[in-house]
């Protein structure tokens, strides 16, 4: 009898229609003889990510044959001729016939194969009778064979160095371009030694970077038929009403409206090319990545933060001339550069800057793009915005214009601006060029290292003419002072920053009770115990004053700690019986951390009412009376 069977059947993924299969003659390449050599050649290739090494090696090891022919009306023809009289006769394909067809293609292009008669494609050394026996083939080469030979046509035939430094493509190319390039290179660069043994060639590339694919906001593959495609143009230029508003208008993004998180049907604001570029370096491109408006909005905020940081830097450098003000902090040798800063906080931030530049440059060279972006944004957020910018505001605005402490801070700001713009240019070229064009002409030094060593400035016409910053960290230190020098600086700075955090916590309590508005409305007193020596040593090193233990009585003022904690004053004493109108206290250990138990404490931290009046100029409570000027502001005005 007869019965029906339901079974699966291949469908074309694009046309969504059944595939008609038929048997036909094909050309095959025996790649089994190349397997071992191809896999071995990968040992010299830097694969990123490393897991892609196993995938490509496994695919090579399991491949025995390569069908290199296709039956398509387009593509590069296989230059072979068949005997019309005897179909079973060996096809005609010799070095002579291939070279002649190649010369025809060089003049007329590969379309000559379809336009010319067979006789016109055979070399002139053949007689008309011989030519009449053959007809040209109609098979074309597999496109992966074409693309797999680009290393030869793009590099070797143009006299460029081979192998290439890097090839970049998606994860699907392990069975495509990455593999075909390797096989064609191993085969065609082989040589025969004196004993007649063939030595196969090597890889056509030194490194492979395998990236994932961009998905929609819900993690689905983008498809025109589904309507969830988000093109780069949509992100850069925006769509619909959102495009008119603009992603960066007044520093605020525009929340797109539409169906789903990342479908192409919604409206996208015009974020600009820089935001798209920063998104690309911020995500892990070695995996599939979802693109959504929410994710792009976060990226926009990160770029806006970087832009505001650079604006702040430029806004405080309008009177800073590197040729006039940097040499005071620079001792240049033939090989090294030494910077001396007025305060320990300046030296610390400069060290963090150079460490960040070194790390981000290394990450970028290793194509670790997310780490590169993360190290820069972390430095901007944690070291600059949350720490340094807050601490030096008083110094920048209230100190003497050409005072050492103000110029020291400006030197750090200038170095930060110069370094950041250089390392951000590959990712944010429009932002960096904008910053460059708005910087004073005398700050546009193409090679800062060269200038510091030789004094020759030069002038760049565009940010693209900047040299990449040196990855070697400069020698950074504070100028000579009376404090402690023989300390573990990293450990001491950790204690100092812990102390700052402890002060901030107590200040927040005072602010919540309405006792202070600004943190400068308070003074800080640290009453130390006998086991507070490590903390005392760190504070002495940071502020540049003698260790408290060397004084017989009274309190020691630490102006650098007051600056760091953004309070009017910061005193350290063995004991203090003064009474204040209000105060909040807590305990800290020898590392500066807040502790709940007095038995674990090394000092008592007190935030209290200021002892002076509010200065009419700097608003710090250091004046003899409210409305008067403090001594610092009075001296500055007299000198100006």
Question: What do you see in this structure?
Answer:
This protein is an alpha/beta fold and 640 residues long. Helices cover 40% and strands 12% of the residues. It is built from 23 helices and 22 strands. A 6-stranded mixed β-sheet has the order 18-19-17-22-20-21. Strands 2-11-8 form a 3-stranded parallel β-sheet. It has a 3-stranded mixed β-sheet with strand order 14-15-16, with helices on one face. Strand 9 and strand 10 form a beta hairpin. Helix 1 runs antiparallel to helix 2 and helix 15 packs parallel to helix 17. The longest helix has 30 residues. It is elongated, with a radius of gyration of 35 Å. It starts with 27 loop residues before the first strand and ends with a helix.
The strand order across the widest sheet is 18-19-17-22-20-21
Alpha plus pi helix count: 23
Low-confidence segments: 243-262
Silhouette: elongated
- What is the percentage of strand-forming residues? 5-15%
* Cα-atom radius of gyration: 35 Å
Key structural traits:
single chain, alpha/beta, six-stranded mixed β-sheet, 22 strands, elongated
Question: Helices and strands in order, then pairings?
Answer:
Blueprint: E1 28-30, H1 35-41, E2 46-48, H2 51-61, E3 65-67, E4 69-70, E5 81-83, H3 95-108, H4 112-115, H5 118-121, H6 128-132, E6 134-136, E7 140-141, H7 143-148, H8 150-155, E8 167-170, H9 177-188, E9 191-192, E10 198-199, E11 207-211, E12 214-215, H10 232-237, H11 240-245, H12 273-282, E13 289-290, H13 293-315, H14 322-325, E14 330-332, E15 337-341, H15 344-365, H16 369-398, H17 404-424, H18 429-437, H19 448-454, E16 475-478, H20 489-512, E17 523-528, H21 533-543, E18 555-557, H22 559-565, E19 569-573, E20 583-588, E21 594-595, E22 603-608, H23 631-639
Parallel strand pairs: 2-11, 8-11, 12-13, 15-16, 17-19
Antiparallel strand pairs: 1-3, 4-7, 5-6, 9-10, 14-15, 17-22, 18-19, 20-21, 20-22
Helix pairs in contact: 1-2, 12-13, 12-16, 13-16, 15-16, 15-17, 16-17, 20-21
């Amino acid at each position: 009898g007869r019965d029906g069977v339901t079974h699966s059947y291949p469908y074309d993924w694009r046309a969504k229609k059944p595939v008609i299969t038929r048997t036909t003659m094909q050309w095959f390449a025996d790649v089994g003889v190349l397997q071992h050599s191809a896999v071995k050649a990968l040992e010299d290739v830097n694969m990123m990510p490393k897991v892609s090494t196993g995938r490509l090696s496994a695919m090579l090891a399991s491949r025995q044959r390569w069908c290199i022919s296709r039956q398509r009306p387009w593509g590069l023809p296989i230059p072979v001729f068949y005997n019309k009289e005897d179909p079973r006769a060996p096809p005609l394909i010799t070095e002579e016939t291939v070279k002649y067809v190649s010369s025809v293609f060089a003049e007329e292009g590969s379309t000559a194969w379809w336009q010319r008669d067979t006789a016109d494609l055979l070399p002139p050394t053949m007689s008309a009778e011989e030519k009449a026996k053959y007809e040209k083939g109609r098979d074309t080469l597999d496109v992966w064979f074409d693309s797999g030979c680009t290393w030869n046509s793009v590099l070797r035939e143009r006299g460029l160095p081979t192998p290439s430094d890097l090839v970049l493509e998606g994860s699907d190319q392990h069975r495509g371009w990455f593999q075909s390039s390797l096989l064609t290179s191993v085969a065609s660069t082989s040589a025969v030694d004196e004993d007649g043994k063939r030595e196969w060639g090597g890889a056509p590339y030194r490194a492979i970077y395998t990236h994932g694919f961009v998905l929609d906001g819900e993690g689905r593959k983008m498809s025109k038929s589904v309507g969830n495609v988000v093109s780069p143009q949509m992100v850069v230029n925006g769509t619909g009403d959102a495009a008119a508003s603009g992603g960066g208008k007044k520093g605020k993004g525009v929340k797109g409206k539409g169906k789903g998180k990342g479908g192409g049907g919604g409206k996208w604001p015009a974020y600009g090319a820089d935001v798209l570029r920063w998104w690309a370096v911020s995500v892990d491109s070695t995996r599939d990545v979802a693109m959504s408006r929410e994710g792009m909005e976060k990226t926009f905020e990160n770029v806006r933060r970087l832009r505001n940081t650079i604006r702040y830097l430029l806004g405080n450098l309008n009177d800073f001339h590197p040729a006039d003000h940097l040499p005071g902090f620079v001792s240049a040798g033939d090989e090294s550069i030494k910077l001396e800063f007025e305060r320990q906080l300046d030296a610390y931030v400069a060290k963090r800057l150079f460490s960040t530049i070194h790390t981000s440059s290394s990450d970028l060279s290793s194509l670790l793009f997310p780490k590169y972006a993360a190290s820069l944004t972390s430095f901007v957020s944690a070291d600059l915005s949350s720490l340094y910018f807050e601490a030096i505001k008083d110094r920048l605005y209230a100190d003497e214009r050409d005072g050492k402490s103000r110029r020291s801070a400006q030197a750090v700001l200038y170095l930060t601006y110069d370094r950041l713009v250089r390392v951000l240019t590959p990712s944010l070229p429009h932002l960096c060029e904008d910053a460059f064009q708005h910087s004073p002409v005398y700050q546009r030094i193409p090679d800062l290292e060269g200038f510091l060593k030789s004094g020759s400035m030069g002038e760049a016409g565009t940010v693209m003419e900047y040299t990449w910053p040196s990855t070697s960290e400069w020698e950074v230190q504070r100028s000579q002072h009376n404090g402690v020098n023989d300390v573990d600086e990293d450990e001491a700075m950790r204690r100092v920053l812990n102390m700052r955090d402890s002060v901030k916590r107590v200040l927040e309590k005072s602010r919540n009770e309405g006792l202070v508005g600004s943190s400068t409305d308070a003074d800080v007193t640290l009453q130390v115990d006998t086991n507070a020596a490590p903390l005392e040593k760190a504070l002495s090193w940071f502020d540049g004053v003698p260790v408290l233990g060397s004084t017989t009585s009274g309190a020691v003022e630490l102006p650098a700690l007051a600056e760091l904690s953004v309070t009017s004053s910061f005193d350290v004493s063995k004991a203090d019986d003064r009474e204040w109108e209000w105060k909040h206290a807590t305990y800290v250990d020898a590392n500066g951390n807040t502790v709940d138990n007095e038995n674990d404490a090394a000092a008592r931290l007190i935030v209290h009412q200021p002892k002076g009046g509010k200065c009419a100029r700097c608003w710090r409570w250091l004046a003899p009376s409210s409305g008067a000027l403090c001594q610092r502001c009075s001296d500055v005005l007299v000198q100006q």
